[in-house]
Amino acid sequence: MKLLLLADKESRYLWDFYKPGCLREYDLMLSCGDLKAEYLTFLATLGRSPLLYVRGNHDDNYESRPPEGCECIEDKLVTVGGLRIVGLGGSPLYSGGRNQYTERQMEARIRKLGWKIRRAGGVDIVLTHAPARGFGDAEDFAHCGFEAFLPLLDQTGCDLKVDSQLGLRAWRGEEPFVVIAHPHALPRIGRDGSLDFIHVRSPFME
């Protein structure tokens, strides 16, 4: 299965300069948030694959104008093509926005998913907007990672942690890795223990 991962910045290649058929190779599209609703609607309309998304801290307008033809998987566990995917969008609380959470609130969201994860026998992908604490996050409130994600990744046997990124990336299922965006001054590729992470600074495909 080949995935197209999206977040934070609309790709002119896929939108302004769209070429018919350029989305045909992807089996699933995943959005980590902070993208215009009409951009996701465009991709879902012209692509042949499902588009699943979580909300970023700048996606409060999704409440009144959600992306069309897409599926919001906030606080859900869904299975697509044999992949078990959990969605947990939003950022740490810093200004009181609709899609901002305290550590305690994020822990509560994860606990509510616990029985679904156990019944499914684990998850393959955790789709988030914010990173896990210590995985490429920053010290400012807006870009600090959630500590609540760490036990989730340990307990579920997750193969891929996908969070917000600047641009897009294709994943072919060859190796597990973390895709992150915030902050913007991280190394492009890194490793933390046995887990690889990739920092995407600009739109590209692989």
Question: Outline of this structure?
Answer:
The protein is α/β, with parallel strands linked by helices and 206 residues long.
Tell me the quaternary state: single chain
Order of helices and strands: EEHEEEEEEHEHEEEEE
**Percent in strands:** 25-35%
Strand order of the largest sheet: 5-6-9-10-12-14-13
N-to-C span = 14 Å
Question: What can you see in these coordinates?
Answer:
The chain has 206 residues and is α/β, with parallel strands linked by helices. 17% of the residues lie in helices and 26% in strands. It has helices spanning 37-46, 103-120, 149-156; strands spanning 3-7, 28-31, 51-53, 71-72, 77-80, 83-88, 91-92, 100-101, 125-128, 160-162, 167-171, 177-180, 189-192, 195-199. The strands form 3 sheets. The chain has a 7-stranded mixed beta sheet. The longest helix has 18 residues, at 103-120. The protein is globular, with a radius of gyration of 16 Å. The two termini are 14 Å apart. Mean pLDDT is 78; it is low at 165-196 and 198-206.
SSE diagram, text form:
Blueprint: E1 3-7, E2 28-31, H1 37-46, E3 51-53, E4 71-72, E5 77-80, E6 83-88, E7 91-92, E8 100-101, H2 103-120, E9 125-128, H3 149-156, E10 160-162, E11 167-171, E12 177-180, E13 189-192, E14 195-199
Parallel strand pairs: 1-2, 2-3, 3-4, 6-9, 7-8, 9-10, 10-12, 12-14
Antiparallel strand pairs: 1-11, 5-6, 13-14
